[in-house]
Amino acid sequence: MIFFLQNRGRGAFKRAFLVLLFVFGILAFLVLSGPYFKAEKNIKWGITYSKIQAIRMGLDWQAAYIEILDGLNVNNLRLPVYWNDVEEQQGNYDFMDYDWMVTEAAKRNINTILVIGRRTPRWPECHVPSWVSVLDQASQDKALLDFIQVVVTNFKAHPNISAWQVENEPFLSTFGECPEADPGLLRKEVEIVKTIDPSRPVIITDSGELGDWLRAAKNADIFGTTMYRKVGGWGPFKYATYPLPPQFYRWKANLINRFVPVKKLIVSELQGEPWVIGTPTASDKPLEEQYETVNPKYFKEIVTYAKATGIGEIYWWGAEWWYWLKLEGHDEIWNTAKELF
Predict the structure, then answer these.
(1) Where does the record place the Glycoside hydrolase family 2 catalytic domain (predicted)?
(2) How far apart are CA 230 and CA 76, in angstroms?
(3) Could you tell me if 180 and 216 are in contact, meaning their C-beta atoms sit under 8 angstroms apart?
């Protein structure tokens, strides 16, 4: 392309520059003209807590849960309900652990988002009971919809449930051990939730850096973006940092909102734990390797970056790791996080 333009002379360069300038001008107009999300100064901080991740890290998951809620003075919580944990046998639902977690959060007046569906936070992303794999596709879909119906019916009476997140980054096909996204099935899941509980909003999330956001936002009352700074496994690089300004996420949301309006924008996952290669559990690696992507100094930089986004509700990813570090005698990140809540 450069060779072609060089041979066409300065006129071609000028025309190409004007075309690019015009395109950027249109994008700027779409981003900056309403409706748009204004920058928020006061942030509501929250956490995601995963029972299965706490167990993987060798923690007493119940003790860790209570100590995280109380030790950090958490006010906002995102809680995944794992299908394979609740319905190990088809048609037999055991919500005991999740009822307990929601009730403990209610005792502390903690606003709680329940994440439901096949794809929920933590590796391998899709948490499906083993019995589902022997079913044909139509029966698998029905089993998922039945699960959604039972979960919402079970928890809708809890006053501290603030929203339902249906699936987790359902269109992120490049990550996780999951089948291809099915937009029609996602719509059916959302319809079931809204039919059973029309009073609460539905959250749909997408990758902040890799997602197109449009397909997710179509189904959302609230749109949630992930926000990761340092990630692993980029070609020849062990780790890479996304070269994005903090305003990128709000600009992208403003652009998408021109086509698919949503009521609210949140950060559903803010990276607060290391991205390690070869294991879903950072604590499996030596501390030196854990600290390559998130360490006490860089954690403070992530806080500064997140504040600069102007997004008013942000849920941290990694509270289990902060707690594990604290037990290991490294409480710097825990203490920094504690000041936010």
Answers:
(1) 66-212
(2) 25
(3) no
The pLDDT tens digits of the residues spanning 172-209 come to 999 999 999 999 999 999 999 999 999 999 999 999 99
Structure tokens at 273: 């734990």
**All structural domains of the chain with their residue ranges:** 1-33, 40-338
Q: Classify residue 65 by burial, with Cβ atoms within 10 Å: 0-12, 13-18, 19+.
A: buried
Q: Report the alpha-carbon distance of residue 99 to residue 96 in Å, rounded.
A: 5
pTM of the model: 0.90
Single out the residue of 122, 115, 44 nearest to residue 76, CA to CA: 44
Encoding tokens for residue 133?
Answer: 């794999």
- In degrees rounded to 5, what are phi and psi of residue 166? -95, 115
Over its C-alpha atoms, the chain yields an Rg (Å, rounded) of 21
d(CA 139, CA 90): 12
Residue 185, number of CB atoms within 10 A of its CB: 19
CATH architecture classification, 40-338: Alpha-Beta Barrel (3.20)
For 49-108, what is each residue's pLDDT tens digit? Answer: 999 999 999 999 999 999 999 999 999 999 999 999 999 999 999 999 999 999 999 999
Q: Which of 194, 202, 214 is nearest to 167 (CA)?
A: 202
> What DSSP assignment string belongs to 132-189?
GGGS-HHHHHHHHHHHHHHHHHHHTT-TTEEEEEESSSTT-TTSSS-PPP-HHHHHHH
DSSP 40: P
Residue 210, CB half-sphere, CA atoms under 13 Å: how many?
11
Closest CA to 314 of 242, 272, 266: 266
